[in-house]
TrEMBL record:
<dbReference type="Pfam" id="PF02738">
    <property type="entry name" value="MoCoBD_1"/>
</dbReference>
<feature type="domain" description="Aldehyde oxidase/xanthine dehydrogenase a/b hammerhead">
    <location>
        <begin position="23"/>
        <end position="127"/>
    </location>
</feature>
<dbReference type="InterPro" id="IPR008274">
    <property type="entry name" value="AldOxase/xan_DH_MoCoBD1"/>
</dbReference>
<dbReference type="InterPro" id="IPR036856">
    <property type="entry name" value="Ald_Oxase/Xan_DH_a/b_sf"/>
</dbReference>
<dbReference type="InterPro" id="IPR037165">
    <property type="entry name" value="AldOxase/xan_DH_Mopterin-bd_sf"/>
</dbReference>
<dbReference type="InterPro" id="IPR016208">
    <property type="entry name" value="Ald_Oxase/xanthine_DH-like"/>
</dbReference>
<dbReference type="InterPro" id="IPR000674">
    <property type="entry name" value="Ald_Oxase/Xan_DH_a/b"/>
</dbReference>
<protein>
    <submittedName>
        <fullName>Molybdopterin-dependent oxidoreductase</fullName>
    </submittedName>
</protein>
<dbReference type="Pfam" id="PF01315">
    <property type="entry name" value="Ald_Xan_dh_C"/>
</dbReference>
Length: 460
């Protein structure tokens, strides 16, 4: 019996959770309720840089309905993905507007908020750096003066001062490429702002403590990270943390870290009752792990015939007050700026920069979105400089079978070239809408974008 070619089989499988979601029966973390459950609120800093001289919780403890108050002494450790530079509560120093100073659990959310406001904090102002330009200026105040003492969780990056991490890729001799007489040098600079995920369900957690174990229900994309990091911050074995992930009401990278779970866990242990912590939309905007603001500088040495002899790029990524995911994301620049086109030589540097602003994080393809925008806009500027059709230049230079990528990877198969040909046919078949644009801006473009996948062992 002949077996059908699996590549020609289309499978349209229904999502098992679709019906409940459409009918409103799905219970997300924000819908979870437990008997005797308390509500938590966070006291946040209203300044971006200061030394904490005194915290007085006497009045807050006596407020109606208050069952527990948590401070830095309840979780003295540091956490992070690449560098352990982030305390759970501001400890001695405040590094961004919105940083957590204390947490309160009370019978109602309103009571918890009132008690948080009743906590008295005495501060001493410290120098502040709000932009990457400020942070990298000579003599700039250091967001982390003791950066040398932090535990580095994986090796491979350069660090120093307000540069939390730098990842580099060098292949070939770019200086020689730019010194050639037969090349045109094109330079571009782009700046992008922060972006917020605005998922329909905010970050939320319900935690309880019983028989020496924590049970945490949370809206997260990384349950193992939350489990392990919570255990580390609380100084307990990971086996004492049981995690459940209800349906997640949107993540997009926003819920790719351990952000609020330890606060609820500590309050649950101290109060002896389940604790619910849900960030308001204002808190989401104030402290969300946004897509980072960045500055991208690219320059290329290109021959008149359209060959890219050399390329250099520097990407500055604002990681905010703590390194977090940005340490890891710096390594992706090698792919996003060096994984589309053949390059005779290449030199790329990506730096995560500390500032006195909220920490940033992953957001749908991480830094790939703005780096692809920058690279493709730069490519159009190259085409203008050498007088070549943009589609023809891309066809000539996209990576194909046997080509060498920026990191030395040898590519297999031809995908990008045929895709450009297909896009050209689709564009020809689709008439321009310029006549109906009126006075509005109008444009059409064909760009190249690639992404990578993580290949690892199957789940067991």
């Amino acid at each position: 019996m002949a077996i059908a070619d699996p590549s020609n089989v289309t499978m349209n499988l229904p999502r098992r959770d679709a019906r409940d979601k459409l009918l409103g029966r799905t219970r997300y973390t924000v819908d979870r309720m437990l008997p005797r459950m308390l509500h938590a609120a966070i006291l946040r800093s209203e300044v971006a840089s200061a030394r904490i001289l005194k915290i007085d919780i006497t009045r807050a403890r006596q407020m109606p309905g208050v069952r527990a108050v948590a401070l830095a002494e309840d979780a003295p450790g540091m956490h992070g993905i690449g560098i352990a530079d982030h305390p759970l509560f501001a400890s001695g120093v405040i590094r961004f507007h919105g940083e957590q100073i204390a947490a309160v659990a009370a019978d109602t959310y309103e009571q918890a908020q009132a008690a948080a406001r009743a906590i008295e904090v005495e501060l001493e102002p410290l120098p502040i750096v709000l932009t990457m330009a400020d942070a990298l200026a000579p003599g700039a105040a250091l967001v982390h003066p003791d950066w040398k003492n932090y535990e580095v969780l994986f090796e491979g990056g350069a660090r120093g001062g307000n540069v939390a991490w730098e990842a580099t890729v060098v292949r070939g001799d770019t200086e020689a490429a730019f010194a050639r007489d037969d090349v045109v040098v094109v330079e571009s600079c782009f700046r992008v702002g922060r972006q917020n995920h605005v998922s329909l369900e905010p970050r939320a957690v319900v935690a309880s403590y019983e028989d020496g174990r924590y049970h945490i229900e949370t809206s997260t994309q990384v349950p193992w990270t939350v489990r392990n990091m919570t255990a580390k911050l609380l100084g307990i074995p990971a086996s004492q943390v049981h995690l459940t992930v209800p349906p997640v009401g949107g993540g997009f990278g926003q819920k790719f870290d351990c952000t609020l779970e330890p606060y609820a866990a500590i309050l649950a242990r101290k109060s002896g009752q389940p604790v619910r912590l849900v960030y308001s939309r204002q808190e989401e905007m104030l402290t969300c792990l946004c897509r980072e603001n960045a500055e991208i500088k690219i320059r290329s040495a290109v021959t008149k015939s359209g060959d890219i002899a050399g390329r250099e790029a520097v990407v500055l990524m604002d990681c905010g007050a703590y390194g977090g995911e940005q340490i890891f994301l710096t390594t992706m620049t090698a792919h996003t700026l060096g994984g589309n086109y053949r390059l005779g030589s290449v030199k790329l540097a990506s730096r995560a920069v500390y500032t006195n602003t909220p920490p940033n994080g992953a957001f749908r393809a991480c830094n790939g979105v703005y780096n692809t925008f920058a690279l493709e806009r730069h490519t159009d500027e190259i085409c203008q400089a050498i007088g070549m059709d943009p589609l023809e230049f891309r066809r000539r230079n996209v990576l194909g079978d046997g080509d060498l990528g920026a990191t030395g990877q040898v590519f297999e198969g031809d995908v990008l070239g045929p895709m450009l040909d297909r896009m050209a046919k689709l564009r020809e078949a689709s008439p321009s809408k310029r006549p109906v644009a009126g006075g509005r801006l109008y444009g059409r473009a064909t760009v190249v974008g690639t992404w990578f996948i993580f290949v690892g062992p199957p789940s067991t």
